[in-house]
Amino acid sequence: MLNPVTSLWLVLALTVLESVLCGTPAPERFFRSQIVDHLDKEGPYCGEEFTQRYYTWDKEFRGPGHPIFMIIGGEGHIPPETGLFYPFVTHHLAKTFGAFVLQPEHRFYGKSQPLGHQRDHMINRGYRHDQRVELFTSEQALHDAMNLLSHTKQKLGCSNDSASPLYCPVITVGGSYPGFLSALARIMFPDIVDMAYSASAPMLFYAQKVNQDWYYDHITKVAEESLPGCAKAVSDALEEAKELVMTGQYNETIFGICDRTTPDYITSYSMFWDEIQMVVGYSFANDNMANYPPGNKTRLYNTCETFSCDKSSSLDKLRHFLVHRLSRENATCWDMSGQLPTGENATISSGDWSGVGTGSDGESWDFQTCTREVEAIGFSESSMFPKREWSMDWLKKHCYSRFGVTPDPYGMVRCWKFDQLVETNVTKIVFTNGLKDGWSVGGFAKSLSDDLPVLNFPNGAHHSDLSGRGPSNDDSDDIKKGFQTITSILGTWLNEVKEQSSLVSPRGLASNA
């Protein structure tokens, strides 16, 4: 017999969600009493506040006593046209459970700037100390989220007493880095966050338990599966191009680079090649993340077709790929300096070798991966890319030149032990992985316990279950089944919260009734 959650899900599944390509647009809101520094009550920012941008979705909310889904913002600004990231949450989970949806923008991205936009407020040049070291952390961001949540619960009339019928259980949700934050919120605040949904969460990357070769090796494997022969075609093109560069037999036009856009810091053949390879590498990484549903209509398949074309030379293939992927339609060249993030001493090869992005978002993510969110990602001989080894020494030099900071790769995992969830009695986190996603090599591969289930989707890419489009008839069967399973798991846990509260008296003592 179907339980009510599954029955309702099947009804909802019959309705094709209106095509939403980029989240659920919503008007921006502002929380003007966010705390700059939650952790140092005697520091220089004690008592200071800033304005944080956030978004809400209340169309399905049935009032106090029903859940709050908190979508965690991540490494990018969130404009109103994007709004709330995941239609699966707003249009399906919220409808199923009568829930309110809340989504804060991550501090130091977009309009959520604890120190304002003035760089001289960030860096004390005399001591070469970036003030963001203490303020720009995952922990501070999650304290922001909890503070905004408390404000929101009060406005909604939700009780903080789990025994009250007006208690609103909290479910954090996120994909990728926000997936990690979603799990971490449950770990850090178990008395506030009742359960978490974490998709494509790079838990083992931040636990420093991922071999640096695994990421691009997996991307190579998936590219080859997408179009047999792709990996060799890419490898051949890149090796030929590298030989020309390293012997000085090249100019920028060979690679389709627009005139006078090569960054000034590039002063050697080897440095030029490293940056060309990095651009190619992270472009493939982006195509890999978007490789869903798998087939001949994805960017990854089209890229593989470009490199596999027998009618073009290796250099023509590489030039076509770079111009097509990195410039506007009908352009004949690409702006190499346009690949840089903002800020002093910016380089294309940055803290995250899967790509930090461009502009101010890129600068912020470069900073995070230079401090606590350290990711060991390199290019091995087994991949379709020329070998380039990542090292902590390289990262330290980059981060000191860029921000005057030293990476702390083990700081978070030592503190929160998110690689030992069973041993530390953590419960009620559902993890999901798309097995075609490069980031899956850093996720939990199998369920850790009954209350820490892991769902693996053979056809899934990067958090395909939490896409910007939401559930549709185009989804693969494993993702469709995943939607049902996730809904059922969360429904079971919500019932457990409700049952547990019914056994507790208002004074917090077990009832004998």
Helical proportion, percent range: 25-40%
Strand content range: 5-15%
Average per-residue pLDDT, rounded, comes to 92
Spell out the helices and strands N to C.
Answer: HEEEHEHEEHHEHEHHHHHHHHHEEH
Specify Rg, calculated over alpha carbons.
24 Å
The helix tally amounts to 16
Name the overall outline: globular
Could you say which structural class the secondary elements and strand pairing correspond to?
Answer: alpha/beta
Q: Which ranges are low-confidence, i.e. pLDDT below 50, for 5 or more consecutive residues?
A: 1-21, 505-513
Span between N and C termini? 30 Å
* Number of beta strands: 10
Biggest sheet: strands side by side, in what order?
1-2-4-3-7-8-9-10
Largest sheet: 8 strands, mixed
3D architecture notes:
By secondary structure, the chain is α/β, with parallel strands linked by helices. The chain has 16 helices and 10 strands. It has an 8-stranded mixed sheet with strand order 1-2-4-3-7-8-9-10, sandwiched between helices. Helix 8 crosses helix 10 (269-289) and helix 11 (299-308) runs antiparallel to helix 12.
